[in-house]
Design a protein that fits this description.
The chain has 2 domains: 190 residues, 3-Layer(aba) Sandwich (D-Maltodextrin-Binding Protein, domain 2), CATH 3.40.190; 133 residues, 3-Layer(aba) Sandwich (D-Maltodextrin-Binding Protein, domain 2), CATH 3.40.190. It is built from 11 helices and 11 strands. Helix 4 packs antiparallel against helix 11. The chain starts with 8 loop residues before the first helix and ends with a helix.
Length: 342
């Protein structure tokens, strides 16, 4: 998902260890797609967050559904906490074949399909249901764009809204002026922070906690679930309900591996992906409300800035960003506006 970066040598060791323990009938050392078609196979899924996170629970649900639908002939081992690498590394691993399945947003799979960034522009949607409606409307196009990059799109993860946690209260757009705001290092988020008047500050996600604690950054934006599960509220006690982004991330696997599976297993994986996506939407809605309550109970103070100020500030940036991606970007942007009315 957006902003979980930073591969480690430990992650690569886990990849090798996972391959050795996979238990696949036949060798994994050959080229992708060369695995015996009828072999009992175990796939590796790179999950970025702790097991309690909605995205991680969805990865586990996909594994459960896949096992059931294939009667155990195809199974998935899920590696949580970015143990197979950060977001970029997970996506790169899937594309190269060193990892079988992963979920990722703009910093990962989005780097191969830049027009996906339009789906994550600020104030595109009013709810997670708006996101789903847009995805449903253009899903075939999204699948085709991923396929062109050697990836099979199995499902979606829905999340948001993103809010802003900080070491001082943020009551209006004016309070963002000069704010050292950690954002994912993608052009969309950097441009958004600049439109807010903030100073986008690059910090790898595993280092954000200490950066907030030491005031290397003043603030971080993210979803309530990510903020709570990462315990940022221990070192930053203010949240502004900017609610600036609802978004979708993607569950995908390498096309060469998928194409080498028996047809019934391909169909089972696609069906499992659809059901896991529906499961994710339901638990994501619940998680937002629950984690906002948990953050409040932990002593976090909330403010509610006027969102119209923020919408006006980013409006020119949104049009420019979509146009910079040419026809693919503007086409997706038109679909979003038609569905959500933003």
């Amino acid at each position: 998902m957006t902003g979980f970066t930073g591969a480690t040598k430990l992650g690569r060791r886990h990849v090798l260890r996972a391959a050795g323990a996979a238990g696949v009938v036949g060798s994994l050392s050959g080229p992708i797609g060369a695995r015996p078609a009828q072999a009992q196979m175990k796939l590796r899924f790179a999950s970025l967050y702790p097991p309690a996170h909605a995205a991680s629970r969805t990865a586990d649900k996909l594994a459960e559904l896949t096992r059931a639908k294939t009667l155990g002939k195809l199974t998935i081992d899920v590696f949580h906490n970015a143990s197979l690498g950060g977001e970029r590394e997970a996506a790169e691993g899937v594309r190269s074949g060193s990892i079988d399945v992963a979920y990722s947003g703009l910093p990962g799979f989005g780097s191969y399909v830049p027009e996906f960034g339009v789906l994550e522009l600020p104030f595109n949607y009013n709810s997670l249901d708006d996101v789903k409606n847009v995805v449903d409307r253009i899903s075939r196009s999204l699948e085709a764009r991923m396929a062109a990059q050697g990836l099979v799109l199995l499902g979606y993860l829905y999340d948001g809204p993103r809010v802003t946690i900080s070491n001082r209260p943020l009551r209006s757009l004016a309070d963002f002026r000069g704010l050292k705001l950690r954002v994912p290092q993608t052009p969309l988020y950097v441009q958004m922070a600049q439109a807010f008047g903030a100073s986008p500050t690059p910090v790898a996600l595993p280092e954000v906690y200490s950066a907030l604690q030491s005031k290397v950054v003043d603030a971080l934006e993210g979803t309530p679930t990510s903020l709570f599960s990462s315990k940022y509220h221990e070192v930053a006690k203010n949240i502004a309900r900017t609610d600036h982004i609802f978004f979708v991330a993607y569950i995908a696997m390498t096309k060469k591996l998928f194409d080498g599976l028996p047809t019934d297993q391909q169909e089972a994986l696609r069906a499992a992906g659809r059901e896991a996506s529906a499961f994710n939407l339901a638990i994501a809605k619940e998680a937002v409300g629950e984690d906002l309550k948990r953050l409040e109970a932990a002593g976090v103070a909330f403010t509610s800035p006027n969102k119209d100020e923020f919408k006006a500030a980013v409006a020119p940036m949104k049009e420019k960003f979509a146009a910079s991606l040419g026809e693919p970007g503007t086409a997706i942007y038109k679909e979003i506006r038609a569905v959500s009315g933003t």
